[in-house]
Specification:
The protein is an alpha/beta fold. It has 3 domains: 4-60, Alpha-Beta Plaits (2-Layer Sandwich), CATH 3.30.70.2580; 71-125, no CATH class; 149-306, Rossmann fold (3-Layer(aba) Sandwich). 22% of the residues lie in helices and 37% in strands. It is built from 8 helices and 17 strands. The chain has helices at 17-26, 85-94, 151-160, 176-181, 195-207, 223-227, 247-253, 273-279; strands at 4-13, 37-39, 42-46, 55-60, 71-74, 77-80, 100-104, 117-122, 127-132, 135-140, 165-169, 185-192, 213-217, 232-238, 254-266, 284-294, 297-306. Helix 5 (195-207) links the parallel strand 12 (185-192) and strand 13. Helix 7 packs parallel to helix 8. The longest helix is centred in the middle third of the chain and has 13 residues, at 195-207. 36% of the residues are buried.
């Protein structure tokens, strides 16, 4: 009989299991030495460290598999951390659903926050069709920034939403929040500065037959003038290096009772509390760790409740 090992795991409904499995692999926390297992309609996915909501359960060891270079997968694209052609070929051989291996030749840069890529192996493309919790999205990594790493956050916000809310996404990109939250909203405005991102967002809204989302192109600082007299029940601010600079604009667009979700890369807890309270005095602030970004910084979300 195979000996079992007790390890931390994430427990999700089986229908959400594949998306979550890909997510923990992308986050670099999957314990791939152990085999995920089903139990009472849930999939238990072993992870290497304790996370919020994780539980400890016994697991059997996985069969030995070939070690692959570290990479992130977005649809049919894999993005390697190193310029490694042989490693890229090895990944494509072991990932039947991947068609292209890429290496980023630039950081995220410019006013549109895009990157340049080198094709290491596979098809000569940076485009793919990405699947997330039953939705599909067109992605082009050179045209618009995209990361799959907030898929769980999108589900968290969806679970908090009331039917018929008015929602604003100030930095919408290709529309992942719009695609996930739009069907539950009475109206959602999804804005981005990058016209290419908004073009892809429009395709994604049509692909998923979503009619409650209005895409806009513009500087988020100008949204109060662009959207007046509209006010919103929920505002999403996902611009990790600079979202806090737009809090004043968000305050002008918030209903008297509103929830703001501000995403930021931080180096200490409470780093943006003062910024938030300047724009929203007496707001209730809850800060949540999302993932590590570097040895000294991490990706956090500030849930800001106003008027509750």
């Amino acid at each position: 009989m195979t000996e079992e090992v007790v390890q931390w795991c994430i427990r999700v409904p089986i229908q959400e299991g594949e998306a979550m499995r890909r997510q923990v692999i992308a986050d670099g926390i999957a314990d791939r030495s152990l085999r995920p297992r089903a139990e009472d309609g849930f999939l238990l996915i072993p992870i290497c460290e304790k996370r919020e909501g994780a539980v400890q359960m016994p697991f059997a060891a996985s069969p030995k598999r070939e070690e692959l270079p570290r990479h992130e997968q977005v649809g049919g694209l894999v993005i390697l951390q190193d310029d490694d052609v042989e490693g890229a070929k090895k990944i494509l051989q072991n990932r039947p659903n991947a068609h292209t291996a890429l290496y980023a030749t630039s950081p995220v840069e410019g006013e549109f926050r895009t990157r340049s890529f080198k094709v290491l192996a596979g098809l000569d493309t940076t485009e793919t069709l990405y699947h997330e919790y039953g939705k599909r999205m067109y992605v082009d990594l050179t045209a618009a920034y995209f990361s799959a790493r907030l898929s769980n956050e999108r589900q968290r916000l969806l679970s908090q939403m009331r039917e018929g809310e008015k929602v604003l996404d100030m930095f919408a990109g290709v529309g992942p929040f719009a695609v996930m939250l739009g069907p539950k909203a009475s109206l959602m405005v999804a804005n981005d500065l990058n016209p290419s991102a908004v073009y892809l967002m429009q395709r994604n809204l049509r692909l998923n037959k979503i009619k409650t989302v209005v895409p806009t192109v513009g500087d988020a600082m100008n949204l109060p003038n662009m959207l007046s007299p509209l006010k919103f029940d929920r505002i999403i601010m996902n611009l990790p290096f600079a979202a806090y600079e737009f809090l004043e604009a968000a305050a002008k667009l918030a209903e008297s009772r509103c929830t703001i979700h501000l995403y930021s890369l931080v180096e200490r807890e409470g780093e943006h509390n003062e910024d938030i309270l300047r724009a929203f005095p007496n707001a209730k602030i809850t800060e949540k760790f999302i993932r590590s970004y570097s040895p000294t910084s991490w990706h956090a979300v500030y849930d800001v409740e106003v008027g509750y």
